[in-house]
Fold Transposase.
Amino acid sequence: MSCYRRSNVAGASYFFTVVTERRQRILTDDVFRVALREAIHRVRRERPFQIEPCRAGRDPR
């Protein structure tokens, strides 16, 4: 089982990077981007949060 470390500081900021298995390009597909946007809106309605900058793009390599 995973052991997650979470900060309980009010107003804290988090930075994370998501990489697919074998760097598949599904994260840049329009279908995925629409699904991600809808999921974020759905979760935000129940548990409000802010997203400062957000970028989904190809690996520059």
Notes: Residues 1 and 7 are 19 Å apart (CA to CA). The chain is about 30% helix and 0% strand. The chain has a mean pLDDT of 81.
